[in-house]
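Each field is set out as follows.
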Amino acid sequence: MYLSIVLELKKSCHPEKVSLLQGFFKTGKGGYAEGDKFLGVVVPDQRRIAKAYRTASLKVIKRLLGSIYHEHRLTGLLILVYKYQVADEKEKKVIYNFYLKNTKSINNWDLVDVTCPPIVGDYLFSRPSERKILYRLVRSKNLWERRIAVLATFVFIRHGDFKDILKLSKWLLSDKHDLIHKAVGWMLREVGKKNQRVLTEFLKNNISKMPRTILRYAVEKYAPAERAKIMSK
């Protein structure tokens, strides 16, 4: 099945898109995805292929995650998402553990953002006692593990549970990476959509230590005058 998936992806390649994707995802020297390689397969085609092969084993997915090609890894992760959606509780735990054991292959922001909430976020939402893993990930030297910790809370926030993202955000105010600033600001913005009072209180208590990118993302949905007033601080 691995070879069938790879061949399907090869058939869907758009070589003219490769240079654009490599630039967009910062694959050049010194970029956050330095050395990553692309085939030029668009995401809708990857979703189509992943759905067609959603019965692939974890062994096949592991091979895809070990590929040098970005689209192989994303397609493997999308298969994992589709498997998780129809899994029973025992199978969900296996998929969740598999995901966390393979974070070295989940090495770009789109791989995290598309697949972390529906697997890690969903699994931990109903298991608050297991969320301590997020506090280990958020201290990781691996940029993508820190982003996984942040994005997992998306599911919690949708259900009005803000405790973990507020704690994690406070910890990450001193993080140096722009992609973490953007992720934290995005999740805080989602908190504000649910309860602006909670976000305003968090900003009030932490604005002096907050990187500008986090603040800019967080207040995006405020009224223009209020947003300008907050940004001026």
